[in-house]
Amino acid sequence: MDILDKIIEHKKKEVAERKGLFPIKLLENSIYFNSPTVSLKHYLQCKDSVGIIAEIKRKSPSKGNINPYVDVERTSIGYMQAGASVLSILTDNTFFGGNNSDLTTARKFNYCPILRKDFIVDEYQIIEAKSIGADAILLLANVLTKEECKAFTTLAHQLGLEVLLETHTLNQLEYYLPETDVLGINNRDLKTFTVNIERSLELAVHLPNSVVKVSESGIKTADDILLLKENGFHGFLMGEQFMKHAKPEKACYELILQVQHALNLKTVSHEN
Ligand SMILES: O=P(O)(O)OC[C@@H](O)[C@@H](O)c1c[nH]c2ccccc12
C-alpha cells in the first residue's frame, strides 16, 4: 500500500465521520454557502499577473514539517500583496497539517480565488468546500474514475465552484472534459514522490492552446516559471519553495519581482 492509498483510505473514514458530525443541512447554513465565488480560470488568464498559485502547506508526507505554525492571516494577505493570483490552502489535517479553518481565515482576509486543496472522494466534500469559503476544488485523476470526475465537476458547477483537474500521466489527460475549468499537471508522482518539472513540458504538447494549464509542484526559480510560460502554462502552483521560509510571503514577493523583471527585459529586447 503506497502513501496515496493510505491517504485515500484514511480520507474515506474521515468523510464518513464528518457527515455524522456536520450534516449537509448544517453546511448549507454557512454564510459562504450562498456567496458568489471568484473565478480561478479568469484570474489565471489575466495578462498583467505572473500566474502564481501560492500555497499554504504546513507539512507533507514527503518532507515532514515545513512550516507547522504558519500564520495563515499574515501569509495569505502577504501572498496577495506580493502579486500572487490565487491562494491554495491545504485542508487535509492528518498528512498535511491543514484544516478547514485555515481556508476560512484566508477567505475572511482576501478577495481572490481560493483553491481548496484536499483529496476529494465524496460529493460531501464539495459541499463542504463551498461552505468554508472556497472558490475552486482539486480533483485528482489519480484517485477518481472518469465518471466520478464528471459527476463531481457537475456538482461543483452547480454550487458555483470551479474545478482544477490534476493529472500526472498521458492517459490521465483523457479525464479532461470540455467543462473542466483548469487542467493541472502535477510534476510530483504522488506514489513515489519523484518530482520533475519536465513532466509538465512533456504532457503540455498533447493539449490544445485553449486549455488553461497549471504546472504543479517542484517549481523553484524564476527560470522554471519562464520556461513553463514559454510552453503555454498560465499557472504555477508553489508550496514548499515559499513555505520553507519563516516568511513565505517574502519569498513569494522576491520571486514575482524576479519573474516580472525578466519579462520586462524580454519585452524591451524584442522592441529593439
Ligand atoms: O510544495 P510544492 O512542491 O511546490 O508543491 C505544491 C503543490 O503542487 C503540492 O502541494 C500538491 C500538488 N497536488 C497535490 C495534491 C494533494 C496534496 C498536495 C498537492
Automatic annotation (TrEMBL):
Its EC number is 4.1.1.48. Keywords: Amino-acid biosynthesis, Aromatic amino acid biosynthesis, Decarboxylase, Lyase, Tryptophan biosynthesis. InterPro entries: Aldolase_TIM (IPR013785), Indole-3-glycerol_P_synth (IPR045186), Indole-3-glycerol_P_synth_dom (IPR013798), Indole-3-GlycerolPSynthase_CS (IPR001468), RibuloseP-bd_barrel (IPR011060). GO terms for molecular function: indole-3-glycerol-phosphate synthase activity; phosphoribosylanthranilate isomerase activity. One of its GO terms (biological process) is L-tryptophan biosynthetic process. It comes from Flavobacterium beibuense F44-8. It is an enzyme of class 4 (lyase). This is indole-3-glycerol-phosphate synthase. SUPFAM superfamilies: Ribulose-phoshate binding barrel. It catalyses: 1-(2-carboxyphenylamino)-1-deoxy-D-ribulose 5-phosphate + H(+) = (1S,2R)-1-C-(indol-3-yl)glycerol 3-phosphate + CO2 + H2O. Pathway: Amino-acid biosynthesis; L-tryptophan biosynthesis; L-tryptophan from chorismate: step 4/5. Residues 4-254 form the Indole-3-glycerol phosphate synthase domain. It holds the Pfam family IGPS.
